[in-house]
Amino acid sequence: MLRAELRRAEGELEDRCWAPPPGLQQWLQLTHEVENRSYLRKKQQADLQLQQAREACEKLRKKRSSLVGAFVSTHGKSIDDVDRSIVEARTALNEVTQELQERMHRWKQIERLCGFNIINNNGLQYLETALYRNANGRPTGRGRISSSQDDLSIGDDASICGSGKNYDEMSLFHEHIE
């Protein structure tokens, strides 16, 4: 019984001595920055959507203030369209806000578990430069890997792996990781 408790205590002590592998901090920081950039794009789109809804509402208000416009706007679909655009803009902003809250909670938990900073870092450009250098300290010539479908153009017939230069860059990337 005493030996089992001793083994359990030793196991817990070893678990507390865990140290993250070298480079993990920078890779997590890069991941955070890529997620943050995606969030900023979504927020910008939601803000634009809200601005467009406000402008449509203002146009409708001006239209209704005219004599002919009051009659036409009460019988037209423009009120429904403006109302729908306001609801959609509000929904988009709520989704972005919830996503931000979830992301911040998740990254703070990861920071706490790893014991190092992730959110406060040197920025995306520095991290990409630091992480995508070959063993000689020279850049691999690799551009950033697309972080989402947003970066791929519709109708792009080229494969992500592709051939030629893209394939070489991907193989260098995989060699760097291993």
TrEMBL record:
**Does the record's keyword annotation contain Coiled coil?**
yes
A Pfam family found in this protein is SOAR
Stated name of the protein: STIM1/2 Orai1-activating region domain-containing protein
Q: What molecular function terms (GO) are annotated for this protein?
A: calcium channel regulator activity; calcium ion binding
Q: Name one GO cellular component term.
A: endoplasmic reticulum
InterPro entries, per the entry = SOAR_STIM1/2, STIM1/2
One record GO biological process: store-operated calcium entry
The source's domain of life comes to Eukaryota
- Name the Gene3D superfamilies for this protein: 1.10.287.3550
On whether Coiled coil is a keyword of this UniProt record, the answer is yes
UniProt keywords (A-Z) are: Coiled coil
Q: Which residues form a coiled coil?
A: 36-99
What phylogenetic lineage does the species belong to? Eukaryota, Metazoa, Ecdysozoa, Arthropoda, Hexapoda
The STIM1/2 Orai1-activating region domain sits at 18-118
Provide the leader sequence positions. none
